[in-house]
Amino acid sequence: MNTTVSKPRIASIDILRGMVILLMLVDHVRERFYLHKQVLDPMDIESTDVELFFTRMTAHLCAPIFVFLTGMSAWLYANPANGKKRNVQEFLLKRGLILIILEMTLINFSWFAAYNTLYLQVIWAIGLSMIALALVAHIPKVWLASLGLLIVFGHNLLSPIQFSANEFGYSLWTILHDRGYLVTEGIVKVKVSYPVLAWVGVIMLGYVAGPLFSQAVDSLKRKKILFIAGTSFLALLLLLRGFNLYGETLDWQVQTNTVMTIMDFLNYTKYPPSLNFLLFALGIGALALAWLETAKSTWLDRINVLGSAPMFFYILHLYALLVCYAIAIYFFGPNISYGAQQLDYFAFSDVWQVWLFSAFLVAVLYWPCKKFGQFKRNTTMAWVKYF
């Protein structure tokens, strides 16, 4: 149901954030209960079932949109509607450090209930990107936009650069561009799963786009700009990908049938995110923001609840999955063995069960998120604001 009455400016951002959180939940359910069907990066379309391919592909929207919105939200924090500017560098540094600490503690433990390997994943990447943005947020917006565009559009050119583990520069390059292990020996191994360079470019562009949501911009004008931006990103994607010009590690080819051809065309690299990966996600994200500018419905309001407390939902859903898996193992036991070591594992038999269980978890987690959101708005405790 649509209406011509604009939603509050922040609401559209929170709703979109809530939407990608829901897609993230589906992907994490897949990683917990469908891990025996591995997906590569980019995916192997010959061995990946169609329903698994498109389930995984929906998760491609999550990180780019979330990081972009993080940059946009940082600008809105620094430039509130009351006109009293706030210190964005301090805000970004504190939040970035807290996210990195959470990744290394609560979040990492939630995946394995152990600390044998410390995986530096998306929350680490967002935290490090916020710290990087704090260092350059003061420079003129034209320079910041140019730097962001240079990183997003140019980082694919860096793919041929590689370092072996014993070479100088390996650790820095692993953090910036090539995922890999920082520490391979000792009590705890450390692996960078999300190289951060491209995400720094994305958060810069989000920060530069922040003024689009200021009080000075008319709602209809903002919607038009977002629509033009979204269609332009997707048109550029069609050009670059369609002719295999630039922006992806593997060229696409016509396959044996239409579905396989579409899969090949949409098969983008996530680690690190290719330019085509980013154009795909940010193009859809811009169009979604344009639609949300005037969209209104009860279910969007409920999604807003999740998007307004993203870190709380993130940690809560990971521990909910950990507990649910333990319960499944206790009552049903392992039902499959997979991997080189033939690990015993409990798993769903079909992808539709991943989506069904995700819907169940959303229903269960909605009310705690709603209560926490109310508490977050009313409390004076500063630490709560970080969730």
Overview of this structure, please?
- There is one protein chain.
- The chain is mostly helical.
- It has one domain.
- It is built from 14 helices and five strands.
- The strands form two sheets. It has a three-stranded mixed sheet. A two-stranded antiparallel sheet has the order 4-5.
- Helix 1 packs across helix 11, helix 1 packs across helix 14 and helix 6 runs antiparallel to helix 8.
- It is globular.
- The N terminus is likely disordered.
Task: Give descriptors for this structure.
single chain; 387 residues; mainly alpha; three-stranded mixed beta sheet; two-stranded antiparallel sheet; 61% helix; 5% strand; globular; disordered N terminus
At a glance:
The chain is mainly alpha-helical. It has helices at 9-33, 50-58, 62-78, 88-112, 122-136, 141-154, 170-176, 197-209, 219-242, 258-265, 275-292, 298-307, 310-332, 351-378; strands at 117-120, 180-183, 189-192, 336-338, 343-345.
